Amino acid sequence: MDGQNASLQRRALAKLDWLVVRDLYKTETATFWIDSPEVKSGETKPEDIATEIFLLPAAATAENVPGNPYAPVGSAEYPCVLSTYRLTEHHLSGSMSRWLPWLSALQPELFVELSPEHAREIGVINLETVRIVTPRAAIRAKALVTPRIRPFLIDGKVVHHVGMPWHWGYKGISKGDVVNDLSALVGDPNVTIHEAKVFVLRVEKLAGAGKSG
Q1: Does a structural domain hold residue 122?
Q2: Both ends of the chain: CA-CA distance in Å?
Q3: Does 63 fall in a domain?
Q4: Residue-wise pLDDT tens for the chain (213 aa)?
Q5: What does the alpha-carbon distance between residue 92 and residue 174 come to, in Å, rounded to a whole number?
Q6: 62 is a domain residue
Q7: Do 148 and 110 have their domain in common?
Q8: Cβ neighbours of residue 166 closer than 8 Å, sequence gap 6 or more
Q9: Are residues 94 and 27 in the same domain?
Q10: Is residue 69 part of a domain?
Q11: 71 near 78, Cβ under 8 Å?
Q12: What are phi and psi of 152, to 5 degrees?
C-alpha cells in the first residue's frame, strides 16, 4: 500500500512461491489474495494465486525478555529523563542521509543536549564528550550545553531533561553511537505502539575528558 504503483506490486505478489508477512494486523499485504481490488473486480481469482502466505502476528512489544531491563520507578541511579528527536538534516536512522557528504557536513556528529544547570551539576563543559547510561546500554556523545533544554521541577525535586537525536550508527560518512541502544522494548498501554521516545537515564562525565574537536 505504501509503495509506488501498488496495483502492479499486488499482481507481483500473486506470482511468488511464498510470502511471509509479520505484522500486528491482517494488512492489505497479508490478505491481498482474498480482498484486493483485483480480486473483487474479478481480474484475479484466488484459486489462480500460487503464492503460499504465512501470516505471523507480531507483538508490538516484547517487554519481559532477557536483556531488556527497566529502571525501578524513582531510581536514584537513573535520575534524568531523555527524549529523542529528529533533525532536519537527517532522515530516520540516518541510513540514507549519513552517506551524503553535504548533509553529513551540516550535522556531522552525535550530540546530547544538556541544560546549563545539568552541565554544572556533573562538571561538564560545552563540546565535552560524555557517557549516557541506561539499564540497557551506555553510549558516548558530545555535550551541547544549551538553555534550550530546561530542568523540570516535580514535587519540589529538580529532574534534568536530556535531548538526543537518533540518526547515527556505525556506518556511513558520519558515524556515531546508536541512541536506540539505550531505549527499552516497551509499548503504549492503550494501543501497544512503540513507546521508547522518552525514558530515564544518567549522564556521566568521563574521567580525564575535556573539550574536544
Answers
A1: yes
A2: 45
A3: no
A4: 556 788 888 889 888 998 988 777 788 888 888 998 889 999 888 998 889 888 876 655 556 778 889 999 999 999 999 999 999 999 877 888 989 999 999 999 999 999 999 999 999 999 999 999 999 999 999 999 999 999 999 999 999 999 999 999 999 999 999 999 999 888 776 766 777 789 999 999 998 765 554
A5: 14
A6: no
A7: yes
A8: 84, 85, 86, 93, 179, 180
A9: no
A10: no
A11: yes
A12: -95, 155
- Its pTM stands at 0.75
Q: How far is CA 198 from the centre of its chain?
A: 10
Between CA 145 and CA 85 the distance in angstroms is 17
**Beta carbons of 192 and 142 less than 8 angstroms apart:** no
Q: CB count, 10 Å around CB of 210?
A: 10
Task: Identify the burial level of 90 via C-beta atoms within 10 angstroms of its C-beta, where 0-12 means exposed, 13-18 middle and 19 or more buried.
Answer: buried
Q: Quick one: 31 and 88 in the same domain? A: no
- Whether the CB-CB separation of 166 and 84 falls below 8 Å is answered with yes
Query: Looking at the 3D structure of the chain, how many domains does it have?
Result: 2
- Residue 151 — φ and ψ, nearest 5°? -75, 155
* Domain span including residue 21: 6-57
26 grid coordinates? 491482517
Residues ≥6 apart with Cβ < 8 Å to 21: 27, 29, 30, 53, 54, 55, 56
Query: CATH no. for residue 140?
Result: 2.40.40.20
